[in-house]
Amino acid sequence: MTKIRLVILGGGESGIGTALLGKKEGYNVFVSDKGTIKDKYKNALIHNEIEWEEKQHSSDRILNADLVMKSPGIPDSIELVKQLKKLEIPVISEIEFASWFTNAKLIAITGSNGKTTTASLTHHLLKSEESLGLAGNIGDSFASSVCNEQLKNYVLEVSSFQLDGITKFKPNIAVILNITPDHLDRYNYEFESYIASKFRIAMNQTSEDYLIYDADDAVIIKWLEENPVQSTLLPFSLTKVIENGAYLENNNIKITIDNNSITMPTKSITLEGKHNIKNAMAASTVAHLLRIRKQTIRESLENFQGVEHRLEHVLKINKVDYINDSKATNVNATYYALESMEAPTVWIVGGEDKGNNYEELFPFVNEKVKAIICLGVDNEKLMQAFSNMVDIIIETQFMSEAVKIAYKVADSGDSVLLSPACASFDLFENYEDRGRQFKNAVRNL
C-alpha cells in the first residue's frame, strides 16, 4: 500500500510540528521552505529521517502531493499555491491536520486583538482541569503538541490565516473577541473577506457547540445577523444586559449559562483597561461552561500575570513608567493601549504599515500624548497624521536611540509607551525581537 504523500510548505514551528505528526501517522512527508530552516528544526527533520529542502520550492517534488499543509505565513496568492489548487490537491492548515488526530475538547480563540492574553488567561483559569494544553499561535504548534502527548483539553490561539485552511476543524467552544481591520494586505484590502475568515471558526459547529463573542462589536453583530451560525451563542458585553452569557453590572462580571449564574468583581482582574475586562469575561465564560469553581476563577483572575510584550510594565526610572506593548501590531491594539494610559505619554510608534487608518487614535493622542517617536524605515504616513497634534515628533530607525530620546523628553510622572500599531518586519525579526530590544534599551539607560 502506497503511503499518502504529505508536502509541507514552510519549515517553521507549524511546518515541523505537522511533519513530525505526519511521519508518526504513517505519511510520506516532504518539507519545502523558500527561506532557510532554523537549525533546531533542521535537526528535528534529520533525526526523524524526514526529507526536506530549503531556499527553494522544487515544483516536481511538490506538485505530486496527495495533501499539502501550507504554513500560515504563506499567502494563497503565490503561484505555487494556485497551481496546487488548479490540480485539486487539498491545501490545508496545521490546525486542520492536527485536529484529525485528537479527540480532545478544543477551545479555539480568535480575534484581531487580545488572542494571546485571552488564550493564556483561559489556560490559567482551566489549569485545575486534568490534561490541558495551550497551543496554536502561542508556544508549541497544535500539531507538535498532538504528536508528543494525547491531552484531553486544548486551548488554541488561532489566526485568520490558520482558519483559511480548515475544512473539518470544529472547536467545542469558539471565541471571537473582536474584529477590526487587520492583515488587509492578505485579503485584497476587503474587510468583508477578513471577517468571513474569522467566522470560519464556527463553520463546522453544531448546536451542541458554543460561540462566545463580543456583543458590543458592531462588525460581529452585523455578520451574525446576516450569516446565522448553528452554534449556541454566549455573548458578552460591557453595555447591555445579557440573559445567556456575560455582562457588567455595578463593577461585577455576571455570567449566566442555562440559569446557572456566577458573579466576579472586576477588581479581581490584575490586567488593566476595559479591553481586559472583556478578555476576562470571555475566559471566565469558558471556565464557567466547563464548570470550574467560582472560587478558582476568582483566584486565577487575581494572580494572572499577563503576557510578555502586551502592556508589560518594564521599569520605573526617575518616576517615569516604561511600558512594552510591542505586540500591538495594528491600530486597534494601540487604541486599547492609549485608552488605558492615565499619565502624559511619550509614544513610540511605527514599523511596516498594513494599510493603517490612524483616525481612531486622534482623540487619545490629543488628550494623552505629549511626544511621538516614529520608529520605522518609512514614517511619512505617521508624520502626516500626527505632526499637527503634538509639539514633539521625532524620527529614528534605532530602538536604542528611540528610548534615549524618550528618556530626554519624559518628565517625572509620565509614561513611555512602545505601542507600534504596525508590523515589525521593517527593522526587527518579529514583535518579540522588537519588545526585547525595547526592554534591553530601557535597562541600559
From TrEMBL:
<dbReference type="GO" id="GO:0008764">
    <property type="term" value="F:UDP-N-acetylmuramoylalanine-D-glutamate ligase activity"/>
</dbReference>
<dbReference type="InterPro" id="IPR036565">
    <property type="entry name" value="Mur-like_cat_sf"/>
</dbReference>
<protein>
    <recommendedName>
        <fullName>UDP-N-acetylmuramoylalanine--D-glutamate ligase</fullName>
        <ecNumber>6.3.2.9</ecNumber>
    </recommendedName>
</protein>
<feature type="binding site">
    <location>
        <begin position="111"/>
        <end position="117"/>
    </location>
    <ligand>
        <name>ATP</name>
    </ligand>
</feature>
<feature type="domain" description="Mur ligase C-terminal">
    <location>
        <begin position="309"/>
        <end position="422"/>
    </location>
</feature>
<comment type="similarity">
    <text>Belongs to the MurCDEF family.</text>
</comment>
<keyword id="KW-0132">Cell division</keyword>
<dbReference type="InterPro" id="IPR004101">
    <property type="entry name" value="Mur_ligase_C"/>
</dbReference>
<comment type="function">
    <text>Cell wall formation. Catalyzes the addition of glutamate to the nucleotide precursor UDP-N-acetylmuramoyl-L-alanine (UMA).</text>
</comment>
<feature type="domain" description="Mur ligase central">
    <location>
        <begin position="109"/>
        <end position="287"/>
    </location>
</feature>
<dbReference type="InterPro" id="IPR013221">
    <property type="entry name" value="Mur_ligase_cen"/>
</dbReference>
<keyword id="KW-0131">Cell cycle</keyword>
<comment type="pathway">
    <text>Cell wall biogenesis; peptidoglycan biosynthesis.</text>
</comment>
<keyword id="KW-0547">Nucleotide-binding</keyword>
<keyword id="KW-0067">ATP-binding</keyword>
<keyword id="KW-0963">Cytoplasm</keyword>
<dbReference type="InterPro" id="IPR005762">
    <property type="entry name" value="MurD"/>
</dbReference>
<keyword id="KW-0133">Cell shape</keyword>
<dbReference type="Pfam" id="PF02875">
    <property type="entry name" value="Mur_ligase_C"/>
</dbReference>
<keyword id="KW-0961">Cell wall biogenesis/degradation</keyword>
<dbReference type="Pfam" id="PF21377">
    <property type="entry name" value="MurD_N"/>
</dbReference>
<dbReference type="Pfam" id="PF08245">
    <property type="entry name" value="Mur_ligase_M"/>
</dbReference>
<keyword id="KW-0436">Ligase</keyword>
<keyword id="KW-0573">Peptidoglycan synthesis</keyword>
<dbReference type="InterPro" id="IPR036615">
    <property type="entry name" value="Mur_ligase_C_dom_sf"/>
</dbReference>
